[in-house]
């Protein structure tokens, strides 16, 4: 791996680590520790300007982290590992086979959910509740898969990561 690719990969891991911290923090501020939500709870959460801001922040940070991992980190990691870099769906399959992500299909579902959260205004309270529950669960999956990729980079690529 060239020094430029090495440095870029380290910067990407550092960027995603910050995105991960920010996403977990905004989820905590917005949803607390709840795993299941009721439409009435979501209605209360978004009844103020602060709640709307947190909803938008959560959606944006969820989308940003997912985009950075799929579009930047995964291809850079595969390349550094000597693997071919292909289309995103193929990269997901390869990373799943390597044991670096739990389930490539979940990442495709995350992408669809990201598009809904970022590009659509979900005005049906039950649909919004379901979307927020899924985004919260996917946040944990992203966190865990990112940690697996990070551990792989430390162990097999000998990267010095925090």
From TrEMBL:
Protein origin, superkingdom: Bacteria
SUPFAM superfamilies the record matches: Nucleotidyltransferase substrate binding subunit/domain (SSF81593)
UniProt-listed Gene3D superfamilies: Nucleotidyltransferases domain 2
The name this protein goes by in its record: DUF86 domain-containing protein
Organism name: Spongiibacter nanhainus
């Amino acid at each position: 791996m060239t020094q430029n690719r090495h440095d870029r990969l380290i910067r990407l891991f550092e960027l995603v680590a910050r995105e991960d911290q920010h996403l977990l923090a905004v989820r905590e501020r917005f949803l607390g520790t709840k795993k299941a939500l009721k439409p009435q709870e979501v209605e209360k959460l978004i009844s103020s300007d602060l709640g709307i801001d947190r909803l938008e922040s959560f959606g944006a940070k969820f989308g940003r982290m997912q985009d950075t991992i799929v579009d930047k980190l995964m291809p850079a990691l595969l390349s550094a590992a000597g693997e071919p870099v292909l289309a995103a769906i193929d990269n997901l399959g390869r990373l799943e086979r390597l044991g670096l992500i739990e389930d490539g299909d979940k990442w495709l579902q995350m992408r669809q959910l990201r598009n809904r959260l970022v590009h659509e205004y979900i005005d049906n309270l039950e649909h919004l509740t379901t979307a927020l529950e899924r985004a919260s669960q996917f946040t944990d999956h992203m966190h865990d898969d990112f940690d697996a990729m990070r551990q792989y980079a430390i162990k097999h690529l000998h990267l010095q990561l925090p």
